[in-house]
């Protein structure tokens, strides 16, 4: 699914034409090139149906880099950061490195438990930041409802904390049941400067690009772009931004035949493929483990699946490794913030075709049988 041909086309257009701009190789503006931000804002607007202003965007080196930078800007060592429980497992390492205390909030079918959040805040415990993956959450696939997003921003305003919204899966919406594409958390900020949304090209073009964006109030964009790192380095990933810019540009066709930029047809292809993979994996899980409840997500990469018989996924992984078993899954506990998620596994459907996913589910079934037999 990594679009080598499209990247090659974009590189050709950007670097091999007589108009190639050599300054794209120089230190750039700390926010990223203005023309790139204009095309990025149009892309986000098309794909999320939410108005997105170029003044509220800057180029980033992907969400991992911004998780670190924003956390360091907002928090100091020992501060409390709230997060969904479970959460994106590699973010935990970044927070540990900054030295903040992570406190988990329960997940519900419509996202984090806002009542629990409010009760926590009412205790008077100071919270510096809420880290959320609100759209097609990693690992559960759940999305935070718009009513909850609005409420969380109200709470952030009342209790004076920042929301760092990790939107790595924002535009990977598969559209089940005629549902609308989700909007960025920043859409609910309404000028209060509480929400910093971070988005990434990693899941739609390729993580090797190290390219993403920040969508936040103009004053936050100013503050982040004035950080010594983008100031000294001339913005984030200028080569990657220049190299894929062609994919975000409207093709120069006759005005009678307006066409969307190449990234849209690529994204449509990804969405169709991932939708089929998600259905194939869900169908295989339902057929193989009848009666086991799990959410079939409407976007993103993951299914959060409870193992039958309350099997502990860490033990199952240990057993699987001990017999060199050819199956990959992430044990739920790796994603835990406050509580444990022993019987859960995170299954990613993005990487495998439908046949491989079906085979993967029978492998899982057989692994569980072998594991149970080994216990008797
Ligand atoms: C929730 C979440 N945030 C961040 C990342 C990493 O993003 P990036 O490649 O933009 O650094 C991932 C990748 O799996 C992710 O799932």
UniProtKB/TrEMBL annotation:
<dbReference type="InterPro" id="IPR015424">
    <property type="entry name" value="PyrdxlP-dep_Trfase"/>
</dbReference>
<dbReference type="GO" id="GO:0030170">
    <property type="term" value="F:pyridoxal phosphate binding"/>
</dbReference>
<dbReference type="GO" id="GO:0047536">
    <property type="term" value="F:2-aminoadipate transaminase activity"/>
</dbReference>
<dbReference type="InterPro" id="IPR015422">
    <property type="entry name" value="PyrdxlP-dep_Trfase_small"/>
</dbReference>
<dbReference type="InterPro" id="IPR015421">
    <property type="entry name" value="PyrdxlP-dep_Trfase_major"/>
</dbReference>
<protein>
    <recommendedName>
        <fullName>Aminotransferase class I/classII large domain-containing protein</fullName>
    </recommendedName>
</protein>
<dbReference type="InterPro" id="IPR004839">
    <property type="entry name" value="Aminotransferase_I/II_large"/>
</dbReference>
<dbReference type="Pfam" id="PF00155">
    <property type="entry name" value="Aminotran_1_2"/>
</dbReference>
<feature type="domain" description="Aminotransferase class I/classII large">
    <location>
        <begin position="24"/>
        <end position="312"/>
    </location>
</feature>
């Amino acid at each position: 699914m990594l679009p080598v041909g499209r990247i090659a086309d974009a590189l050709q257009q950007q670097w091999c034409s007589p108009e190639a701009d050599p300054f794209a190789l120089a230190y750039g503006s700390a926010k990223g090139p203005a023309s790139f931000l204009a095309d990025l804002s149009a892309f986000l607007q098309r794909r999320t149906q939410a108005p997105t202003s170029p003044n509220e965007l800057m180029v980033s080196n992907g969400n991992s880099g911004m998780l670190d930078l924003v956390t360091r800007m907002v928090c100091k060592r020992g501060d409390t950061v709230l997060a969904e429980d479970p959460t994106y497992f590699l973010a935990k390492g970044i927070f540990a490195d900054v030295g903040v205390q992570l406190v988990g909030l329960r997940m519900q079918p419509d996202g984090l438990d806002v009542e629990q959040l409010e009760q926590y805040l009412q205790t008077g415990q100071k919270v510096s930041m809420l880290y959320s993956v609100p759209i097609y959450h990693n690992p559960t696939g759940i999305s935070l409802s718009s009513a909850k997003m609005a409420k969380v921003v109200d709470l952030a305003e009342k209790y004076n904390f920042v929301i760092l919204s990790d939107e790595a899966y924002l535009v990977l919406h598969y559209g089940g049941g005629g549902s609308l594409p989700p909007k960025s958390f920043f859409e609910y900020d309404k000028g209060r400067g509480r929400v910093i949304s971070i988005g990434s090209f990693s899941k739609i073009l390729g993580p090797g690009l190290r390219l993403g964006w920040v969508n936040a109030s103009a004053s936050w964009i100013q503050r982040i772009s004035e950080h010594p790192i983008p100031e000294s380095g001339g913005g984030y990933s200028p080569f990657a931004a220049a190299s894929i810019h062609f994919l975000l540009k409207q093709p120069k066709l006759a005005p009678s035949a307006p066409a969307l930029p190449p990234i849209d047809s690529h994204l449509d292809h990804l969405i169709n493929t991932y939708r089929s993979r998600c259905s194939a994996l869900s169908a295989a899980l339902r057929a193989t483990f009848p009666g086991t409840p799990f959410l079939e997500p409407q976007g993103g990469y993951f299914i959060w699946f409870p193992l039958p018989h309350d099997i502990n996924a860490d033990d199952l992984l240990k057993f699987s490794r001990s017999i060199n078993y050819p199956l990959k899954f992430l044990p739920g506990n790796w994603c835990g913030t406050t509580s444990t998620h022993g019987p859960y596994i995170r299954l990613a459907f993005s990487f495998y075709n439908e046949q491989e996913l079906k085979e993967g589910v029978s492998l899982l079934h057989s692994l569980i049988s072998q594991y149970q037999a080994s216990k008797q």
